[in-house]
Design a protein that fits this description.
Helix content: 25-40%
Strand order of the largest sheet: 5-2-1-6-7-9-10
Number of strands: 18
Radius of gyration: 23 Å
Strand content: 25-35%
Order of helices and strands: EHEEEHEHEHEEHEEHEHEEEEEEHE
Number of domains: 2
Structural class: alpha/beta
Number of helices: 8
Shape: elongated
Distance between the termini: 61 Å
CATH topology of the largest domain: Rossmann fold
Largest sheet: 7 strands, mixed
Low-confidence stretches: none
Mean pLDDT: 96
Length: 315
């Protein structure tokens, strides 16, 4: 059995669960690398990453580099004498970092690679209406998410899932897979396979204002998947044209109805406590939305303070 000395790299809650699993399984973590504290909120006070908070609680050696290629950081990383690096939800590493340890640098990715390579695999799997996804551990190489695959674990995507609920399930499945993969490395029992000969039908690019906008000329199922795939963050959005007013609104949850009708796509119907949007093959019922400068509210709450005009529509 190899004696592993691990450096862990990560930033958000998704990464904390894997780091905690390594600690709970008695692996030796000699250092934790996370992002520098960032100004956040109205007061612009510095906010620590979730990984930093956990590392401090556990008394782990912590490094917060601003430049991963800087010689002082590389010297400090080298001084930890790690023989394995584990990366979960961190930024792209230069070769000087990922090639440093004897047993390599493994990464956890929230998809079944090579499918959904990129920055937002959880979101895009739901947006594209997938019914299955998973997590993958692989050894990092020169390109993004292209290294040799070590292990994978599958996860069902439920019709009612949004990005938040799927994120939380994959976070725990991923932590278990990280521990399983590290165990194989410790036992010197790793068998990898190359991604080069595998098909890569879907990408998972960064979410932007442009690709988060709802396209109301699409079918109800496509729109429904788009909304839940972007909830709770960054949230799908649209423009509500209500008389002379145009309102930028975020849509956090919705439902759909298949029904024939003669309305133009985007037409807004005010039906008592519901805000219903006509689409080509039915309707989208808004359930939770956010108006500019307001908190998230149910459709019923919105209608208490917003009078929808007869010509109201979304674009």
């Amino acid at each position: 059995m190899r004696k592993l000395l691990i450096v862990f790299m990560g930033t958000p809650d998704f990464a904390v669960t894997s780091l905690a699993a390594l600690i709970e399984n008695n692996y030796t973590v000699v250092g934790v690398i996370t992002s520098p504290d960032r100004p956040a909120g109205r007061g612009r006070s510095l906010r620590q990453s979730a990984v930093k908070k956990y590392a401090v609680e556990q008394g782990l050696k912590l490094i917060q580099p601003t430049n991963l290629k800087a010689s002082d950081f590389l010297d400090e990383l080298r001084s930890l004498k790690a023989n394995l690096q584990v990366v979960v939800a961190f930024r792209m590493l230069p070769k000087a970092v990922w090639a440093m340890p004897e047993y390599g640098t493994l990464n956890l990715h929230a998809s079944l690679l090579p499918d959904y390579r990129g920055a937002a695999p959880i979101n895009w799997a739901i947006i594209n209406g997938e019914t299955k996804t998973g997590v993958t551990t692989f050894f990092i190489d020169e390109k993004i998410d292209t290294g040799a695959i070590i292990q994978q674990a599958e996860c069902e995507i439920k019709e009612t899932d949004n990005a938040g609920s799927l994120h939380d399930r994959l976070m725990h499945i991923g932590a278990d897979l990280v521990v399983s993969t590290v165990r194989l490395i410790a036992e010197n029992n790793v068998e990898t396979y190359n991604q080069k000969d595998l098909k890569t039908p879907h990408a998972a690019p960064k979410l932007t204002r442009e690709n988060s906008r709802i396209q109301w000329n699409q079918s109800f199922k496509v729109i429904y998947d788009h909304i839940r795939g972007l909830s709770p963050y960054p949230a799908a959005w649209t423009i509500l044209v209500n008389g002379e007013e145009e309102l930028y609104i975020k849509v956090y949850s919705a439902n759909y109805i298949k029904e024939n009708h003669t309305y133009q796509p985007g037409k807004v119907l005010n039906e008592k406590s519901r805000i219903r949007i006509a689409v080509s093959d039915g309707f989208i019922d808004m359930e939770e939305i956010q108006l500019p400068g307001k908190r998230k509210m149910s459709a019923r709450e919105v209608l208490n303070g917003l009078k929808l005009e007869d010509n109201a529509h979304v674009v």
